[in-house]
Structure formats: structure tokens, C-alpha cells
Amino acid sequence: MAAQHKPTSPPLLWDVFCRVIDNFGDIGVCWRLARQLAARGHSVRLWVDEPSALAWLAPDHADLAPQLQVLPWDAASTHSAGDVVIEAFGCEIDPVFVATSVVNTWTEDGFHIKSAPIWLNLEYLSAESFALRCHGLPSPVMSGPAKGLTKWFFYPGFTPQSGGLLREDGLHERLRAVSRNQVLARYGIAPMRDNEVLVTLFCYEPAPLAVWLKAIAEGKAFDGFQNTRLLVAHGRAAQAVQKALTEQPEGIFSEENPSLSNLNQHSLLQISYLPLMPQHAFDELLAAADFNCVRGEDSLVRALLAGKPLLWHIYPQHDGAHHAKLNAWLDAMLAPTQTRQAHAAWNADSPAPMPRIDLTEWQTWSAQASAAIWAQTSLVDRLLAFVAERRKPSENPQNGQKTQ
Ligand code: TRH
User: Fold this and answer.
1) Residue 251 — left, alpha, or beta (φ > 0 → left; ψ -120 to 50 → alpha)?
2) What distance in angstroms lies between residue 296's CA and the mean position of ligand 1's atoms?
3) Which of 3.30.70, 3.30.460, 3.40.50, 1.10.275 is the CATH number of 171-374?
């Protein structure tokens, strides 16, 4: 576990802007970031266009005000920027918000920028080489009300050269204290039986889902385990499972097991559908399980931190760019062959058989991948250091820059 860092800068006012495109990842990441900054003593304004998911994802969010305030995106037009402005995932804010906080100074040859907010674009998580190349690069603003200012690219990532991963202080201890049967009891689920594997499912619509459910129901999915307890996350994952149970692709069922529609009576596979839960409960669920199917961005990070075997359903992009992103991640994580094969099948565009999973080998890999992440500093540690560096007068290219 990496040493806990003390704040490297005095408390600052941070503006985090979040546009919810779809799913829960945009607000999920922004909320974790805002919360972790506030926990380090900073003041944070989270400007969000669609905050409804916070009601279940962070039911205590209102209790954290005034240090952490959740504000409507449009209300930013009546405010000016604090010390640091973060545009999450290139969400394009009105540059006037930043420009009105610029302090100019006059010399004989005109106005110069004396101080300005540090302006960052927090990018999507990727292990691809472009992300490492672009991490920390400046992007000068060439026109408009913010002309003369600089935006900085901040790329999260899996290596010490990247922007790191979000991880709050105290998480390691909290995850280690998780009791599996207590977690199950929260959702009214019976304790685990012997020789039963606990699997969580948070995914989009994986092409081999029906085939894999059949393999699980036949006790063929996990080496050495006959029985599976499957906990399905609310929303798209639950809909995908229900669809797989009712609309089967032809030819995948044998005569003895013609349909999956009565699976809950089947002794080898028990399915439970979970409610939407707060992020801290979601993290604990991942720590309690034997095998976590996660998706998108934030749940992938959480599964890595939990250190349990994980299978990633990457956010599918129309141009197929997600395949290169997936492979870059598998390379970065030094994934063994069976893990690569399973990820290739799980993320394929059409149904492909999933390999039988050797949980012992998979656990060895996951534990190593997790340890490599835990040995590094967190995203917030690196962000604070990055901002402190940019706030040094000599390091900030916009300081002293001539304005119109
Ligand atoms: O919801 P996602 O599919 O989000 C995705 C990704 O972020 C993707 O990169 C982005 O482009 C797309 O949205 C728009 O998966 P992700 O990233 O894992 O986010 C899920 C969040 O929801 C995460 O913070 C965990 C949280 N969560 C809970 O807290 N409780 C729950 O019950 C569930 C199901 C999720």
C-alpha cells in the first residue's frame, strides 16, 4: 500500500464540471473526485447538468455542504471560477467562467495576466500509449474570452507516469473488513453454501451472456465449482440477464436443459437482482465476491482495488476503438492467456464461447494487478502535486502573458 500523502497545497476552491452523457460513470467519477478533494480539506463545487443519480449513489451528498456543494450546471453563469477548474471528460464549459477570474496587471506595454485559475481537462481512463504521451500537456487557448490562458490535459492511468486512479484514504482497511455474508444479508440474500462461487454482474449487453449463463447453470463455467450465486446489478445488466433468460439464441440449449427461464429453481445457479446502492456499498460488494464482472471506467477501478478476479466489459464505441483500448489494458496489466481469451469473448461483437475459468490462476493475476495499483500514489495525490506545480509563478506559462 502506498504511503498516505499530506496535502501539498493550501486549501483551494475547486470547480468540477460534469455532464452526464449516459450510464453512471460520468457522475460516479466526478463524485468520487469531488469527495476525495473535500476529504483533503479543499472546498469543491460540483456543477452537474443531471444530478439525479446522486440520490442513490451518494445519498449523504447534501450533508457535505458547504465544503462540497452540488450545484446546477447553468448556475455557473452567475459565478466566477475558483482556484482550479476541472472539465471532466471534455465537457466544454463556458470560457467566460474562467476568464472572469483572471487578474491582469498593467505595464508600459499593455495588460498581462497576473494570475488565473488552473484549468484542467480530466480525460477518460485508458492504458493506450497516447494517453501517457498527452498526460500533463498544455493546450493554449487561442481565441475567445479565455484567449491567452492554458488548459491542461490530465489522464488517469495504471502506471506511475499517468495521472493515477481515484482512491480515497482508508479504503484498504474498509475493504479488508468486509464480511461476505453481512453484505449478502443487506440485500436479503442467504449466506453462501460450500463449494459455491459468488459472482457479481455489472455489464452492458455482452454477446456471450446467454451462452455463459448456460455454462454457469450447468456447473461448467468455473473450474472446481459446481454452484454459482450470481448477483446482478440494477439497470442494463439486469435487463440483459432477463433478455438472455427469455430470448435464447437457437442451438445453445441441450434437450435436458431446454431453457434458462426456470433458472432460479436450478440447483447450480441462483440469481439475485440487486437494488441500486451507494458507492461505498458497491465497493464492499466487489470486495465480498469471488469474481466481479464490471464495466465502463469507475467500476473497473473499484474491482482492481478490491483485488478479486475481475472481468471487464468495456464501454463499446461505434467505431470499434474499444478493442484497442481493451488490449492496451490487458497488456498493461500483464494479463495471462485465459484472462485475455475470456476478455476477448466477453467483449466480442457476436456470441463466442467463454473459456472455463480457473479462479486460482485468475486470482493470482488479479492480486498482482491490484498490488501494482496500490503501490502507487492516487489520482488525487498526483492532481494536487500537478496543481501545486502549475501554481508556482515561474511554472505557469500564462503568467505574464500579454492580453488584448
Ligand atoms: O455506468 P458506466 O457504464 O459508466 C460509463 C463509463 O464511465 C464510460 O467510460 C463512459 O463513457 C460512460 O459511462 C458514459 O460504468 P462505470 O464507469 O463503472 O460507472 C458506474 C458507477 O456507478 C460507479 O461509480 C459505481 C456506481 N454504482 C453504484 O455506486 N451503485 C450501484 O448499484 C451500481 C450498479 C453502480
Assistant:
1) left
2) 6
3) 3.40.50
